[in-house]
Amino acid sequence: MVINENLNLMDKLKILTDAAKYDVACTSSGVERRGDGTGMGNSIAAGICHSFSGDGRCISLLKILYTNECVFDCHYCINRRSNDVERASFTPEEICQLTMEFYRRNYIEGLFLSSGVKHSPDETMEELCRTAELLRNQYHFQGYIHMKAIPGASPELVERLGHLVDRMSVNLELPTAEGLRKLAPNKSRRTILRPMKQIQLRREANKEELTLYRKAPKFVPAGQSTQMIVGATGETDLQIVSVAETLYQQFDLKRVFYSAFVDVNHNSLVPAAISGPPLLREHRLYQADWLLRFYGFQASELLSEKHPNFNLLLDPKCDWAVTHLEQFPVEINRADYYTLLRVPGIGERSARRIVGARRTRALDFSDLKKIGVVLKRALYFITCNGRMMYRTKMDTDYIVRNLLEADRHQNRTSGPQYEQLSIFNYMQG
């Protein structure tokens, strides 16, 4: 591993911004902090600004690695020890300088900072802690900060960092322990889950502290998240969503992020990507994740041992509905809120509006359209006052053909595509 010691700040920024693009476990939603007038910035629930990397990924700014030096040799990672890539490291002062300068120019509203493992987990975690302390205490930065907890670092350092940042994340990396042993021999499931559990328990204790003393220091107020790589190992979608479901239940995670595997190392231990990263599969997993978190579904309802992978042609909710036609059609004016949530084309907001509006009068299809129901999906699964919108066969093949045709028509008639500007467009202009 060759480290270039003669890089200026802009060179480091370009290297370490590019090195961070495969880490998708970042979001700033879930925390509000208003500036008190004595420092710089504030944090709002809308979160940090976003940009798009060259491969189409949406990345949060300022999103960088502290260092791409790493003592680990994970087969899926571009920054693995054995790779011949240009290495660079920031100092805590440089991170602070970049964050404040970008904030003053309104490029960012917060910082997402991950890192390779430099020398040891404890040493790397110590430098992340120093960075956060400088930002909060010396530069008085009150904006959003999301940092990674380094697996294997001491609990004391995790505790120390948790009082300085808004969100922490520990990347699960791969869905199963077997996959981790195969592709990340320097990591173990135990060293990853230990800080997750510590953060969860400490957050629960902090909630009790805040009920007794509202000025008690907050610990990771925006919660924790994690990331799983999809497609680097042979796990089914059922295995992946089951792991996500367990993480939500046992570790109180705010988000599980899914990252389509990019074959950056062309390693024989990982599958060759014939048609590029499995982005559509990643999309279906995000849709299923939403159903788990907000729609009352369980992993065992969406998939089974007989059908362990999602239908790439239909979204998971539609796919579930067409395979459970015995539960449809649903009468809009009588169905409870949770039954309405299971109807394709009806989301959380429209379900709440339906429940509220029908208290005053019976609803018809024109009312549903005004409420925001996507009727091109919902019409096969609902009735209004005992009548369907059109004469429809309750037949799986018939409904699937019509749903797919509606999607194809939408794709043909969709409007122009817009590209969000990158931060480097401003810097180089």
Short description:
Helix 3 packs parallel to helix 4 and helix 4 crosses helix 6 (189-212). 40% of the residues lie in helices and 9% in strands. It has 429 residues and is α/β, with parallel strands linked by helices.
Helical coverage, percent range: 40-55%
How much strand content do the residues show?
Answer: 5-15%
The run of helices and strands is HEEEHEHEHEHHEHEHHHEHHHHEHH
Secondary-structure content class: alpha/beta
| Mean pLDDT across every amino acid position | 87
**Low-pLDDT windows of residues:** 416-429
Radius of gyration: 24 Å
Number of E-type strands: 10
Number of folding domains? 2
Large-scale geometry: globular
Q: What is the CATH homologous superfamily assignment of the largest domain? A: Aldolase class I
Strand order of the largest sheet: 3-4-5-6-7-8
- Here the CATH topology of the largest domain equals TIM Barrel
**CATH architecture identity of the largest domain:** Alpha-Beta Barrel
- How far the N terminus sits from the C terminus, by CA atoms, comes to 34 Å
